[in-house]
Design brief:
The structure is a homodimer.
Chain A: E1 6-8, E2 11-13, E3 18-19, E4 22-23, E5 28-29, E6 34-35, H1 39-57, H2 61-78, H3 80-90, H4 94-117, E7 124-126, E8 140-146, E9 150-153, H5 167-175, E10 179-183, H6 188-204, E11 212-216, H7 220-228, E12 234-238, H8 241-253, E13 260-263, E14 269-272, H9 274-293, E15 305-309, H10 312-326, H11 336-350, E16 356-360, E17 370-375, H12 376-381, E18 393-399, H13 402-410, E19 417-421, H14 427-438, E20 443-446, E21 485-491, E22 512-514, E23 517-519
Parallel strand pairs in A: 7-22, 9-10, 9-12, 10-11, 12-13, 14-15, 14-19, 15-18, 17-18, 19-20
Antiparallel strand pairs in A: 1-2, 1-11, 3-6, 4-5, 7-8, 8-21, 16-17, 22-23
Helix pairs in contact in A: 1-7, 2-4, 2-6, 3-4, 3-6, 4-5, 7-8, 9-10, 13-14
Chain lengths: ~525, ~525
């Protein structure tokens, strides 16, 4: 059901202001009207979230896992209505959204299994040593606990996998944190369908209603009020750099500053090493064009920068990429505003004195891909060329030699990913660059393309500032749970007061580290 | 040797300005004069630290552990000269400083063993699934890497264990980060002796000279320049709230913000539950007086607040504490400035309309302990009463009932510790308060005193803001290493380019998580 409501715990609410979703393919407003949440709604949602914290954060692993699975089941049960609404609101094609739904459900189930296993509790026991000299050692036990209520900002480009029940929400729930979602105004119907599924799971699992609230709305003031609310203890955000920086400033200015996990921007450099370019310039060019234009280029990991040594192989790559791009139809972008921003970014590159337009996608209604060429001196001399143009726009930087490639890499801001296209003969060169690359990124990949982020234990979808606000974290994969946890230590507590994870009998049967040695749970 | 030099890598440097240590017992300046480092020294030290990063961060666990052990050996080898200089500079007694030296050496050895074991690398492997449908899974491997050069600010109150080679330095080295220490001006001779031991270990282990530099100096501008330096990637600090907040602001205003781990202030509430108070008011009062005055009260974990229900047992506790305090001699504080600040804090409490002086320590030269009594309404109505007075000053808050105790706890800022004095009959009441307490602190202890911090795996010496700048961390114990690490993921990298921790042959023989299952190293 899409009623256009604000969902605060178990209650539905309306608002003085309203807004509508826009079909990005037609520019037409869609029914129904949605209530636009305001700071009063924020206050009520946060009061409830705070009230839910004590009980939700102490749910047993099995109970919390069952909640995550109930959400996954609930999203699956919405059926095709979810896909159709998401298609209409985002302009993304069916196959992409069905895949994204699979990922969303899959990551909820992954966190359920991860929560059950219990390693995230980091249960650690250093038993008392009453006879130690000169001083006895007390009994010390440590576990990780949830930070508190978390504010999650839905992303425009993943209306399912990084929105209401996306990776941030799943990992915050997994950690034991109540969640207040600020719904993205580009897909409010999709958001409400998913929010209702979460709310139903809260009820069916018998949890406190404050575990989840959903505040849709278009205003920046709504998000600002949410991050400023004293009951909120952490923030998850995926979006623009300006948006992320604004939330970081609000969080740092609070009476009690809180962590902000903002994934903000990345141009995801691809380094084409000489032997790979010589052996595979044509296929690399074609494959690049596919990666660049996937989902209209609207991925955080879109390859917005290529770096290679100039010469005939470089020219072949550009020609092959250009030929492939010319055959790729224009695409509807997520919102008219995103499309307008893409067009102005491309126009700025077209008007830039130091860049040449190398190729554009096929003409027609929608956004049309663009590839520009420049040289290392020009790229290094203008920081604006290193800023993300969200969408299918990329720059290839022509370098004189591998040292100039290294200097381009050294000059980059923090990135989510770096990609190495290399053959066996390139490995010595790549080894020279690797330490430099590693300081810039969260994920290094070889002979693939950065788009397509596997949801697994070993994934890092993060990276040094300004790719994210906190390069010590990931927003994809099981490690994402760590963002919402903190350690607490218990010294000489009577057994009745010890949390279950640390009781001598180990009632949760979790692995624990005793005197530094890991003991399996059962 | 104490030459009064600035130590930048393998070089010694002088400066235009100089300063001297002051014997806090006499107020006399001590020889020699010390060069006061300035921003030019910061620049050179940070350039060297950055140059050392690539090689030092990739040292094998055994190599890095040997370095930590060489530092420990070097500090031990200084012998009594270190203790004597530290006594003269800090006013702390010999036994305390010998114990602190043992802790300093012990935590270096603990980190050496921890680094060798390799769990801190979090090596995680999700092998490729080439046949997975609809899309194959790539090979994904993750490890944690060092953040980069770290700035460490020595603390006044632990001239060994939280200064030049203290917990911050040890954990940053353990993580693979070069360290630039801003030496505390209160103990420059002690600092230089230890800095030379670190430098000798860098040389004897064949490491890059930039792994360590030592910049002594009294100016805030020195510390500000260090935190602002673009090559510094994280900061470790123990000191005042104003100092920590200033560093946080500088770090947040950088072009690239960096994490600051500042341990700033805590009043470490002690809750005296009714049965414990009834059964043990006298012994509790005496034990409290000992904890309050230990080391002249100059511990981060000093018990600056007691909370209990009023009545005859409460009065007996205050009387016993007062009697014990009256017999405790005044003590020399670390510096004249710290002493002056203590006196003005105590004077403010004496002049406060809502507090009554309950007891003072014995009179004489030096700082004299103080205990004040107030009620919950007064305490809750004036935030200043909840601020730390560094030294042996404490307030006991008289409550009407357990609900008022709870409301006092609920109104507290973040703290390093909370202590529960409780007997078996108190456990039901304590269980009610525990969730509230847990949200406020990093360590909860029962029937002990918060002073005395065990260095072990399960310790958390941290806590929610403003006890520290980052409640997700600890500055004591092996978990402290996590502050200086970040995850990096490697996708489909050829074997020759994989870091040793992730190579198929597991050359470091470390435990790794493969497809979610932990596999022991050997």
């Amino acid at each position: 059901m899409i009623a256009g409501s604000i969902l605060i715990g178990a209650a539905e609410d309306s608002a003085a202001e309203s807004f509508a979703a826009v079909d990005p393919a037609t520019g037409e407003a869609m029914a129904p009207k949605f209530a636009a949440a305001d700071p009063g709604h924020v206050d009520r949602a946060c009061v409830l979230a705070d009230a839910a914290f004590a009980s939700f954060s102490e749910t047993a692993p099995g109970e919390r896992a069952a909640f995550l699975e109930a959400i996954a089941d609930g999203i699956a049960a919405i059926g095709d209505a979810l896909i159709e609404r998401a298609m209409a609101e985002s302009g993304l094609p069916r196959a992409r959204l069905e895949g994204e739904r699979g990922r969303t459900i899959g990551q909820l189930r992954m966190f359920a299994a991860f929560v059950r296993a219990g390693d995230w509790l980091h249960a650690t026991i250093d038993p008392a040593m009453p006879d130690r000299a000169p001083l006895p050692r007390p009994d010390l036990r440590r576990r990780h606990v949830a930070l508190g209520p978390v504010a999650v900002f839905g992303a425009s480009n993943f209306p399912l996998a990084f929105s209401v029940a996306g990776g941030d929400t799943a990992s915050a729930f997994a950690a034991g944190c109540p969640v207040v979602v600020k719904g993205h105004p580009a897909h409010p119907g999709t958001g409400e369908l998913v929010a209702r599924a979460i709310r139903a799971a809260v009820a069916s699992c018998g949890l406190h209603e404050g575990v989840f609230s959903y505040l849709p709305g278009p205003s920046n003031a709504l998000g600002a009020a949410l991050v400023a609310d004293p009951r909120i203890r952490a923030v998850g955000f995926t979006g623009s750099r300006s948006g992320g920086l604004a939330l970081m400033r609000i969080a740092a200015a609070r009476a009690e500053p809180i962590p902000v996990y903002a994934e903000m921007s990345s141009i995801n450099p691809v380094i084409l090493f000489p032997a790979a370019l010589q052996n595979r310039a044509d296929t690399l060019g074609e494959a690049f064009a596919q990666s660049l234009t996937m989902g209209a280029g609207q991925f955080c990991t879109n390859p917005g920068l290529l770096v290679a040594i100039g010469g005939p192989d470089f020219d072949r790559f550009v020609a092959a990429a250009g030929a492939a791009l010319a055959g790729i139809a224009p695409a509807t972008m997520l919102t008219p505003a995103i499309h307008a921003s893409f067009e102005s970014g491309v126009a700025a590159l077209e008007g830039h004195q130091g860049t040449q337009l190398a190729a554009r996608g096929a003409d027609g209604p929608g956004a049309c891909a663009a590839l520009f060429v420049t040289d290392a001196a020009t790229f290094g001399g203008d920081a604006a060329l290193g800023h993300e143009v969200f969408g299918a726009s990329s720059i290839i930087v022509r370098c004189r030699d591998i040292d100039e490639v290294a200097s381009v890499v050294a000059g980059l801001e923090g990135q989510l990913t770096a990609t190495l296209q290399l053959d066996a003969d390139d490995e010595v060169l790549a080894a020279r660059l690797l330490p430099l690359i590693e300081r810039k990124v969260g994920r290094i990949l070889a002979n693939g393309w950065p788009t397509g982020v596997e949801v697994c234990h070993a994934m890092v979808h993060g990276g040094p500032y300004p790719a994210t606000s906190d390069g010590r974290s990931t927003s994809v994969g099981t490690l994402a749970i760590e963002r919402f946890l903190r350690p607490v230590s218990y010294q000489n507590l009577p057994e009745s007061l010890l949390p279950a994870a640390l009781k001598p009998a180990n009632p949760w049967h979790i692995a624990r580290r005793v005197d530094g040695v890991r003991i399996a749970g059962d």
